[in-house]
Every structure is written in C-alpha cells, then in structure tokens.
Amino acid sequence: MEIRQLRYFVAVAEEKHFGHAAQRLHMTQPPLSMQIRQLEETLGIALLTRSTRQVALTDAGRVFLERARAILAELENTKQVTRHAESGLQGRLELGFISSATLTVLPPALRAFRARYPAVDLQLNEIASGHQVDALYDGRIRFGLLRLPLSAPGIHIEPLLRESLVVALPEHHTLASKDRLTMEDIAAQPLIFFRRQDVPGFHDHILQLFQAAGHPPQVVQRALHLQTIIGLVASGLGLSVLPGSSRHLRRDGVVYRPLAAPETETWLAMVQLDGERSVLLDNFRHELRTAAKNLAKSDWTISS
C-alpha cells in the first residue's frame, strides 16, 4: 500500500466518479483505475462498487475512507512539525542550569524565547556545574549553563557573563563596616562553601585565591545550594565567597562586600557537545547572549 494510493482513493470516494477524480488529480483515468484496483487487491477487499456512471463505497470502503483521511492528515501534520523543527519553531530542548543563572540571564532569556517560540517544549533541570558534563555525555540535557573554569573533552564552552566575586557575611560581623574586603581580611574567618564535587572549577578557583594569599581556607561547613549557603551565613555560622549575582538573594541578616584581590572574576558559560548543530539551540543561545549584553550595559548588581 502506498501513500499515493490513499490519496487516489480519497479523491475517487469524494468525487464518486473516476473521470472527475482523475481531473482533480491531474492525471488520466486508466492509471487511476489501475491504482485503485491494485489497492483493493493488496487489501483483498472491494472498496468500491462501480457502474458506468459513478462509483459507490462499500461498507469496507466507508471505513477505509475514514482511516485514509486520518492517515493523510497525520502525514501532513508530521511534515509541518518536521519543517517547524528544522527552523527551530518547534521541538524539545533539555536545559541544565545552576541556581545563580536564575539571578542573571536565565529569566529574561526564557521570557524572550517563550514569547518567540511558544511551541518549543523547554525542559529545565537544575544541575550543579560538576554534574552537567555527565548529563551532556549521557543525553539527559543538550545544553547547559554552568560556572567556569571547566575542562572536559568533547564539550564546547562559550563564556557568557563575567561576574566579580563578593563576600557574603553576617550584617553585624566586624568586617561589615568595611566597603571592600581583601583575602587577608577573610583568611582566618570561618568559611561556608560549596562541595567540590558540585562546582569543582569554582571551588578550586577560590582555593587558589586563599593559597596565593598564603592562607588556607577555614571551611566549617559545605553545602549544595546557593540559597542554603546564604541561610547559613545569616545564622552567623561563617562567611562565604560567592559570584556577584548572589547579591540578588536578599536575606535578612546578610550583607555583601566586594572582594579586592587578583583574579576575582568568575564566568557563567554556555556548554554543549562539540559538533552539535541545531537551529533550536542557536535560537536559545541568541536570547542568552542578548540577556547577557543587556545586563552588561546596565548596573545589574545590587549594592549592600
């Protein structure tokens, strides 16, 4: 059974006449009659009763007409969906992101993307930087937003947004009276920090800052989520060194101060598998780049 035979049959059934159906299909009558006969032979069922003036559907033909129309409609829908997917207007995109991305580029990029491409199914997954590479490798996500530095084979990395480092500390801390803090200021202070397996690059970056200042960090507590770290700072357990976007997390009892030290910058980056080609991904990356540029042009940090 061929798709063209379904179209031929629908035309004959609707026109109730081989000659009229042939004109509608822009073909001659003999090959049309032959194709319908072959369709009936394939099915082993008579679909039409024929007379010299017109044709009529058998009971089996009426059922087959309904199914043929449904198949042709679904085929046309499949073609349209496929064309939309090729142009990035439709499809599914699994995204991984770290929590700090929701404080900067992710919300405006999502709003713009959903407004332009409402038929795209976005699957959002909060995944720590240290686990996004595995998620890319095993296909759980196709795209990620994570914290640099990162080194992983087969992963394409595009830095997106640069942030300065800040120190989050209890508002009544003795260091809160200073406008800026140095590594020497915080070296002996109890530190609340991320677990290395969750953000290995960022973790090692901060560790190197302490080592360069000649002071090993005094880590008293580790946590997975940024919000948890801020909450522990508010409790007076210690202070923390964080990306500047953390200032957007307003919490009673917590203040933020810039960290004055060499190499006190951190990058949010876009990652995907090397060689992946997708208009859908290109469209989403465009919205993220636009959001990052808009943030860079504005004073998007919140002062304490």
UniProtKB/TrEMBL annotation:
Pfam entry (one): HTH_1
Keyword annotations of the record: DNA-binding, Transcription, Transcription regulation
Entries under CDD domains matching the protein: PBP2_LTTR_aromatics_like (cd08414)
Domain HTH lysR-type: residue ranges: 1-58
Source taxon at top rank: Bacteria
UniProt-listed InterPro entries: LysR_HTH_N (IPR000847), LysR_subst-bd (IPR005119), WH-like_DNA-bd_sf (IPR036388), WH_DNA-bd_sf (IPR036390)
UniProt-listed SUPFAM superfamilies: Periplasmic binding protein-like II (SSF53850), Winged helix' DNA-binding domain (SSF46785)
Similarity annotation: Belongs to the LysR transcriptional regulatory family.
Protein name from the UniProt record: LysR family transcriptional regulator
Organism of this sequence: Salinisphaera aquimarina
